[in-house]
Design a protein that fits this description.
31% of the residues are buried. By secondary structure, this protein is of the alpha+beta class. Helices cover 18% and strands 28% of the residues. α2 packs across α5. The protein has a single domain, classed as 2-Layer Sandwich (Heat Shock Protein 90), CATH 3.30.565.10. The strands form two sheets. Strands 1, 4, 5, 6, 7, 8, 9, 10 and 11 form a nine-stranded mixed beta sheet that branches.
Length: 254
Amino acid sequence: MTISRLTVDKLGVKLYDRVSAVIAELVANSYDADATSVEIHAPMDQLLATKEKGEIVDQGLVIEVNDNGTGMTPAEVQNFYLVVGAERRTDTRRGDVSKIFTRKVMGRKGVGKLAPFGVCKRIEVLSAGGPKVKGFDERGKPATGHLTAHLILDRSKILSDTDKAYAPVPGPRDGTVSAASGTRLKLTIFDHRRVPTIEEFERQLSQRFGVASKDWQIVLVDSTKSSTEADSQRSVGTFQVETMEETMVRFVHD
């Protein structure tokens, strides 16, 4: 049996047409990779592309999801990340719990990694993982660090109607070493989609991931604002509950 990549498109990518749903899948992957911190940089409350005379016009905007998880080596990218639809829970090499915090993995369909293609045409993956090894850093100088995978995925090619193997374009940092482990995903060249307001984004993510804890935090950063502006960033799960006058009940402990 062979399954074309267009089938993957219909069964996977087409399920994700909202920016918040796409980001939620990426955050779930960060959780499974034992990240304690995930930062999402996005142009809040902005159209990522406009429509002019029936044509979609990209605005040159960027969404980035950065985590400090265990990351992936180039070999792990090849064996796991680039294998679409694989069930992690039954894979003896990975299992159904994370390596460090033994979290029950959240990934479900095995196609969540392709979720960004529901809203964009290009995904850049930069991930560093595995034990520290001797190599060369991004400047070409000898260093000790985590082996890094850097690749660029193109939607039009990966979802073309063919059964031939797809080869992503390697990025300049592929095979170098990084001081810290973790994964950075950069999404560009968007469809006609809008990023929710930072308030809406926080609410939607908190519904799935709950409140922050000592080993789990999601931070939203509005890339259209400077760090000194009001509401330029927000931690997911930190709620402000408005109260009406004369509706508060106060308990006094003797």
